[in-house]
Amino acid sequence: MKLFDCFSDAGYHSSIVTTFGVDFSAYESIVLGRLREAGCHNNMLIADDRMLGLSMSDAFQRPAHAGRRYSVTGARSSGVFHPKVIVQLGTKAGRLLVASANMTSAGLAGNLEVVGSVLTSETDRQAVPVFQAAVAYLQQFLAHGSVARRQLDWAMRRTPWLKVAADTDANATVELDGGGRLAFVVNAQDKGIGERFLELIGKRLVKRLVVASPYWDPSLTALGWMQRRLEPGATAVLVQPKTALFPVHALPRERGTVLFDTDKVKGTVPSRFAHAKVFVAETDDGDCVLFGSANCTLAALGREGVPGANEEVCLYRELPPGQATQLLGLSEALTDAACIAAADLPAYNQTDEIPLEALAGRLPGRFELAGNILQWWPPNGAAAEGAELLLLDQNGARNAGELVRLHGRDEAFSYRFAGSDLPYFAQVRWHDVESSIAVIVVEQAIQQSQRRMVSRAVHNSLAFLDDDEAFEGLWLLELIDAVALDQAEYRSKGFNDTSVGLENSEVENAAMILPYTEFIAGREVTKGIEVGSHLATTHHESVRGFLNALLGRDSPHVPVDRVDPPAIVLPTGDETDDGQNAIEGGEQFNNEPLASKPVDLSSDERQQLRRQQAYYKDTQKSIADAVQRFISDVQRRTTSQPLEIADLLRLRVLMMVVLGAGSNKSTLLPTDPTAKISRRQVLPSQGEFGWPYLTGRLLFTFFRAHAGSQGPLVEKLAVASDGNAGIPDDVLECWATCFWAACAMLSIPDQRDR
Fold first, then answer.
1. Is the pLDDT reported for residue 251 higher than 50?
2. For residue 664, pLDDT beyond 90
3. Among 677, 631, 637, which residue's Cα sits nearest to residue 655?
4. Which of 98, 178, 272, 422 has the fewest CB neighbours in a 10 Å radius?
5. What is the pLDDT of residues 364-396, one digit of tens each?
6. Are 528 and 438 spatial neighbours (Cβ–Cβ below 8 Å)?
7. pLDDT at 57 > cutoff 50
8. Which residues have C-beta within 8 Å of that of residue 229, sequence separation ≥ 6?
9. What are the distances in angstroms from CA 245 to CA 270, 275, 282, 350?
């Protein structure tokens, strides 16, 4: 199979890819592009942290989209972080790929590699335990609360068939319906991959042991250990002579070991580097196959009582007798014609060691940017005090932004970033030591990347949010409903992109969804740290951003000295620019309703006046009807299901529409067709179409207990628990709008006693 072709398959919303070494240009051009075109927008890359630093040292190989379209995590091991795993998750299906290939151009398209695919679907769930083991293994490398871990949580909420408990074992074995076993095999604390392989083979007599590996112990220690334990009738070792990486001097003469040329493998050309790692134990009952990232070394396999030092992942598969070598394309390479005499092999030339220790001394730590708050987790053992953080742009040049240290929190240090362009990379300088370059993972960019494509109609509607002349109106509710309808149609096709994952209350993953009262309990405000928005990965976030832009939230903060807070002033639509001069000039201000003054109007003027009055009445009725529809809708839905975060966005939009249309005047119907009228302030301060009455209805519905045993609707709100301290920004913004509305009502004298 061609590994890169797998990334073009649709049906998956998330991917997790692990690698030892990484070539960012290969990953972004070969893997990421195909994943996103296939609808997979939630992507995570995990690599050995030292190799990650090495890959960032080449200015021409630095990533263009890391930290924005996908997250990058550096993982550490007592040896090396070496697994090559690809997990693709979808609402109905999943695919697990375990390979020997790194995320490099050579690994994806050049080397001779081995890869195994495990699929699960609606009609075949027997491999689910293997997926559970894979996710349980991978999540240990994603720090709690990190952007990447929240990406994984996001994926799990949209993968109802996959549940991973805290005690899920990373080693899993499945008895297959068609016969044989499938196992996910890693180095555990008390048992290595090699020992697990021997356990799975059991007491079966091994007729032949076939081993292919590019790298070996200098003394062939792991190979000798496996031969002693299995006592095979024969051992076939596949080597590539031209690489001179096989220690032929250590070859045991007495164990019937025969060497074969991997260049004879079917479909292989001499220019390809043989990087596959395969172990086949042939027995009368079947072929026991182990393949994946583990070389034939003690560091990878371990031995009895001593697990391997490396982080490795392999798949174990049992096949009918004689099928393994055929399936792997090794049959032609294991014939007498492909046999190599030991004397014909070149002397062992141990490959140059990667300077891992030196790279470890230059680790920069982890960087994440949420809003304007940059957080830095220093590498283990590094002193944060006295360190200078350097921010870099996409080309590696200094970013013009400034950092202000806030405080330390747990193991992280927080800084407020001030600048027009967000940084791409960071570097740390300790006196005369300069770290390698780190990717800054930008939370908002990752969340935006997670949003799936919408229909053209919704896309065009979202474009109105970019209009500088647009203001709050009922059209925002129509847009929210259009996005929700688009999501519902998407889910009806078997997908799931909800922001909280509430569609199926029977799904066990829904245990992460909490009632509002439970969610809010114990939450605390953490100064300087933004919790984020639960709408961030949906297109509803665009509406939220539009509302915040209307409030000027994104404008620069200018501190001012104030003794008293400003009074809430609602426009009346008829204010004069200079009231004091108007009074001194003798202008009269009549408190009588305008309708009390007889006006002699022409036919055209009466028609114009009717149009103006009809506009006010129709607009008032439209807003009042929207309030009633919203109240009726949420009351109806809460009889059978909880409210979602998107309902808070609807409430906030309605509040802003009502308040934006409010006036201090008790009547607004025009009586003079030539007078200037306001097309926005259409709700009076009194009556059934008055903004205080409509605001009160919304607040009463959400926050007051109702007749009988029915509590306030806010208790019906369900919120996805993401483990963060504090309240999500979108929830706070809605509550702040409601509080401001209550204060505005109190500014109207007639409302204070109600």
1. yes
2. no
3. 631
4. 178
5. 999 999 989 999 999 886 777 788 999 999 999
6. no
7. yes
8. 198
9. 16, 11, 26, 6
Angstrom distance (rounded) from CA 71 to CA 472:
35
* Amino acid identity, position 689: F
238 three-state secondary structure:
strand
Do 475 and 546 touch, CB atoms closer than 8 A?
no
d(CA 392, CA 358): 23
Q: Which of 738, 718, 716 is nearest to 728 (CA)?
A: 718
CB 675 within 8 A of CB 616: no
Whole-angstrom Cα distance, residue 448 to residue 60? 27
Using alpha carbons only, give the angle 19, 3, 441 rounded to the nearest 5 degrees: 40
Q: What is the pLDDT of residues 684-738, one digit of tens each?
A: 888 899 899 999 999 988 888 766 556 788 888 877 655 555 677 888 888 899 9
DSSP-based three-state secondary structure for 732:
helix
State the Cα–Cα distance between residues 114 and 291, nearest whole angstrom.
Answer: 7
Cβ count near 571 (within 10 Å): 14
Q: Element (H or E) spanning 416, and its range?
A: strand 412-418
C-alpha gyration radius of the chain = 33
- Mapped onto helix, strand or coil, the DSSP state of residue 26 is helix
Contact 661, 472 (CB under 8 A): no
Structural tokens at position 375? 């957080």
Can you say whether residue 716 is alpha, beta or left, with left for phi > 0 and alpha for psi between -120 and 50 degrees? alpha
Phi–psi pair at 629, nearest 5 degrees? -60, -40
Query: Tokens standing for 539?
Result: 């297109």
What is the Cα 430 distance to its own chain's centre?
32
- Dist. CA 751–CA 754, nearest whole Å: 5
Record the tokens describing residue 27, joined without a space. 């990953």
Retrieve residue 181's tokens.
């076993």
**What are residue 103's phi and psi, to 5 degrees?**
-85, 65
Nearest residue to 417 via CA among 373, 383, 386, 387:
373
Give the three-class secondary structure for 538: coil
Number of helices and strands in the chain (H, E): 21, 25
pLDDT digits 0-9 by tens, 273-296: 999 999 999 999 999 999 999 999
Instruction: Please say if the pLDDT value at position 67 is more than 90.
Output: yes
Under the banding of pLDDT at 50, 70 and 90, the label for residue 589 is: very low
> What is the Cα–Cα distance from 347 to 661, expressed in whole angstroms?
86
Closest to 225 in 3D by CA, of 287, 295, 296, 286: 296
| Distant-in-sequence, close-in-space partners of 278: CB < 8 Å, separation ≥ 6 | 114, 210, 211, 212, 213, 238, 289, 290, 291, 328, 330
Cβ atoms within 10 Å, residue 208: 18
Residue ranges of the domains in the chain?
A: 453-557+567-578+601-754
Nearest to 373, CA basis, from 17, 753, 6, 729 = 729
Residues 661, 665, 666, 671, Cα dihedral to 10°: -100
Contact 138, 87 (CB under 8 A): yes
Strand duo 234-239 + 257-261: pairing: parallel
Residue 265: how many other CB atoms lie within 10 Å: 23
Pairing mode, strands 42-48 and 71-75: parallel
Residue of 578, 439, 433 whose CA lies nearest to 70:
439
* Largest distance between two CA atoms of the chain: 121
Residue 109 — φ and ψ, nearest 5°?
-145, -5
Query: Strand ranges (DSSP E) for 617-715?
Result: none
Strands laid side by side in the 313-319 sheet: 172-175, 181-186, 313-319, 287-292, 278-283, 206-212, 234-239, 257-261, 339-340
Structure tokens at 142: 């994603």
Higher pLDDT, 574 or 500: 574
| CA 570 distance to own-chain centroid | 42
Burial class (CB in 10 A: 0-12, 13-18, 19+), 752: exposed
